């Protein structure tokens, strides 16, 4: 994976924005299921089992399973790209962009698939984003689940207060940026969702298209 493209700060912020955007939509339009944040689906699946509702359990379990398959697919595809000497970063983004765009179009045109299957298929492509892009400037981060970023923000802020080292302050700013981006994605999605309905998820395609343009241009500059 090209380091220059990977460490462009705007990229993780845009990916966090995309995650908030797509989960903000799925929570309200797909009966409290999540496309990206699978921990929420795990909780709901556990509650369904506790209530004795096997049908509801599968509503949440299927997206989890397809998310796992997405991670596996990403692993094989990354290996193929590496063997062929191709840029991994932009190729993975292009795959996610294509999948999200096609699925959104099918969904918006009213193709009769269950909400569970739609969520699962979207989760399959979101797994690419979650698993492939996990570091920025040597800092581990998540662009889908914010709980780890919140913990890292608090930890680095504490260390900065204690030591006054600028590196901890810089890390704090990065984690804060990720959280704010995710939060902004939710607000934008819910706000425009009332106007664009099922076509709202094309907003995710626009964000991913921007990420692809940025990363591809950075990769070309490294040649």
From TrEMBL:
Transmembrane segments: 9-30, 60-77, 89-109, 115-133, 174-193
InterPro entries documented for this protein: DUF1275
Top-level taxon in the UniProt lineage: Bacteria
Keyword Lipid metabolism: no
Record keywords: Membrane, Transmembrane, Transmembrane helix
PANTHER family tied to this protein: SLR0142 PROTEIN, UPF0700 TRANSMEMBRANE PROTEIN YOAK
UniProt protein name: DUF1275 domain-containing protein
Lineage of source species: Bacteria, Bacillati, Bacillota, Bacilli, Lactobacillales
């Amino acid at each position: 994976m090209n380091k220059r493209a990977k460490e462009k700060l705007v990229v993780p912020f845009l990916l966090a924005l995309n995650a908030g955007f797509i989960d903000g939509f799925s929570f309200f339009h797909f009966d409290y299921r999540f496309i990206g944040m699978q921990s929420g689906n795990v909780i709901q699946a556990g509650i369904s089992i506790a209530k004795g509702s096997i049908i509801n359990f599968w509503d949440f379990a299927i997206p989890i399973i397809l998310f796992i398959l997405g991670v596996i697919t990403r692993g094989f595809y990354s290996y193929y790209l590496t063997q062929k000497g191709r840029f991994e970063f932009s190729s993975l983004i292009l795959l996610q962009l294509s999948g999200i765009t096609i699925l959104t179009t099918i969904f918006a045109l009213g193709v009769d698939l269950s909400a569970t299957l739609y969520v699962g298929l979207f989760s399959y492509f979101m797994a690419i984003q979650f698993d492939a892009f996990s570091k920025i400037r040597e800092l581990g981060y998540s662009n889908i689940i914010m709980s780890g970023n919140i913990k890292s923000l608090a930890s680095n802020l504490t260390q900065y207060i204690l030591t006054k080292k600028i590196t901890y302050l810089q890390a704090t700013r990065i984690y804060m940026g990720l959280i704010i981006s995710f939060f902004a994605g939710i607000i934008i999605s819910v706000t425009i969702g009332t106007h664009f309905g099922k076509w709202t998820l094309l907003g995710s395609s626009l964000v991913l298209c921007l990420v692809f343009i940025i990363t591809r241009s950075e990769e070309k500059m490294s040649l």
